[in-house]
């Protein structure tokens, strides 16, 4: 597949709308975070998320809302969660794919409630790994493939296990899927500004918890 097609956009594409979708998606994520409390289940949290989306003027979902709690934080996008409720000292992540003004936002972050220092370290490590990997894209112009090789080396050095099944993807004006761009981790060129989502999912090498962080690769 050629690079031009892999970074193709639709006729409505506008970079400012992409940045707006990103900003609104982060607002939605933190709105859900404010509702997370001990005892809530993943399904209950997703039901309450609909109220957050409506208040922000979301047009539609482009992928299902994903909220993972506790040991489910090690699961990938397509794996089913086990029934679980948020504990007093626990970890969870939120992964949103929302459409605003016809453009796709895709954001994810991990949080801890109560006192769970090891899980907190994992959440912070996912953010840091995203930061240093995105900085490598800024600084060195790495290809998508090279970005994930870099992320793997960094994760090992930090003492975490990188989930190799999570490799990032395209976004654009909805629906990006018509361009069939493939995964960022399999893209052999330097990803363009404002078109690709860098996804990072890590796990503790032996314990049943992990963390997730994703955001748009942008020079802005």
From TrEMBL:
**Gene Ontology MF terms in the entry:** aminopeptidase activity
Q: Which residues form the Peptidase M24 domain?
A: 17-215
* Keywords in alphabetical order: Aminopeptidase, Hydrolase, Protease
Annotated InterPro entries = Creatinase/aminopeptidase-like (IPR036005), Pept_M24 (IPR000994), Peptidase_M24B (IPR050659)
Return the PANTHER family for the record: AMINOPEPTIDASE, CYTOPLASMIC PEPTIDASE PEPQ-RELATED
Name of this protein: Aminopeptidase P family protein
| Organism field | Dyella kyungheensis
